[in-house]
Amino acid sequence: MLDHFNPSLFPWSHLEPPPVTEELVDQMARGCEEQVGRRTLREMERTRDEALVAILKALQERDIGAGRTMNERQAVISKAS
After folding, report:
1. How far apart are CA 81 and CA 35, in angstroms?
2. Is 2's pLDDT higher than 90?
3. pTM (2 decimals)?
4. Is the dihedral of CA 38, 42, 43, 47 positive or negative?
């Protein structure tokens, strides 16, 4: 994957992308395996989804970004019912 997308993985950064070497690929694979541990794909998906919902709720509480959009839509729904 890194070979396919490098250096387009870094268009938003002012940093030079690292050279894609076998060592880098191996380090990244080991890091991913360490993060996963013994969790199943479903467990990782649940963790991701819970984190995304928490972010959306925090934005909603502060009425910014996507949270503002959620508040505006909720106001429309409440008004209609």
Report:
1. 45
2. no
3. 0.66
4. positive
